[in-house]
Amino acid sequence: MQTNLFSGQSADLRTIRDRLRVAFGRDRSGVRVSAINQFIRSFISSRTMDWQSDRAFMRLLSRYRSPEALADAPVAEIEAALAGVQFADKKARELKAALLHIRARAGTVDLDFLAGLDVDTALLWLEQIRGVGRKIAAATLNFSVLRKRAFVVDTHIIRIMRRFGFVKPNAETEDVYDAVMAAARDMSADDLSEFHWHLKRLGQHTCKALKADCPICPLAETCLKRLETSYHSGHAA
Ligand code: SF4
User: Fold this and answer.
1) Is residue 41 domain-shared with residue 136, that is, in the same domain?
2) Which residue, by CA, sits nearest to atom 2 of ligand 1?
3) Between helices 224-236 and 155-164, what is the axis angle to 10°?
4) How far is the CA of 221 from the centre of ligand 1 (A)?
5) What is the pLDDT of residues 70-128, one digit of tens each?
6) Whether 131 and 84 share a structural domain
């Protein structure tokens, strides 16, 4: 799955990783759930605040005794449990369809068998499900008890990696994924999830979509956007 699109380097990746570790500390926390439960959690989380999608996920867990029961539940009932989640009606419909799809292909609503597949094959398997892109597939593999080496790319991470100059300005999810995975050969699955949470935190509080707060950013010294901005303001002065 590697492409030639990326301009990232292992040294750049280590620089970003190390600076974020100094800024935010080591982060090995996070409760790992089964692959199918992580799949459900990731499926409902897009465009929704983490605390709201986590709350909806806990409601699903408490209402349905198993992923099988959730797959067999009426869409309207699932939608009610997803209250507070963006596009709850669409997600309820698509989540049920996705779980039925998994049952049809795997024989049961369970993804533990992915443990026996290599990462690229497991990603391909998951991405054949309607509504599942690289983000959900990688989160299922990396954040769950499967603990596979897959990097979860969200909109914060795309924005930061573009601005930093690690990928091209028009790079999309798969480009960022390929660039990071190619440069992260010495990073374990836990390192990759820590890297995700650190970048996400930077994107939420410092390198925001509408305003990049470069003066307080731990990546400022080596960030392309920061260097370009300094160069242009120096010329204008
Ligand atoms: S220096 Fe500025 S543009 Fe670069 S990553 Fe930090 S906040 Fe974003």
Assistant:
1) yes
2) 214
3) 50
4) 9
5) 999 999 999 999 999 999 999 999 999 999 999 999 999 999 999 999 999 999 999 99
6) yes
* Segments forming the whole domain that contains residue 157: 10-28+151-232
Instruction: Report whether residue 13 contacts ligand 1, using a CB cutoff of 6 Å.
Output: no
Q: Which two tokens stand for residue 40?
A: 């459900």
pLDDT at residue 3, as a whole number: 39
Q: From ligand 1's centre to the CA of 176, what distance in Å? A: 17
Q: What is the CATH number of the domain that holds 181?
A: 1.10.1670.10
Can you tell me the distance from the alpha carbon of 184 to that of 178, in angstroms, rounded to the nearest whole number? 10
216 within some domain: yes
Q: How do residues 138-147 score in pLDDT, each as one tens digit?
A: 999 999 999 9
207 lines ligand 1 (CB under 6 A): yes
The whole-model pTM stands at 0.91
DSSP class per residue in 63-78: H-SSHHHHHHS-HHHH
d(CA 135, ligand 1 centre) in Å = 23
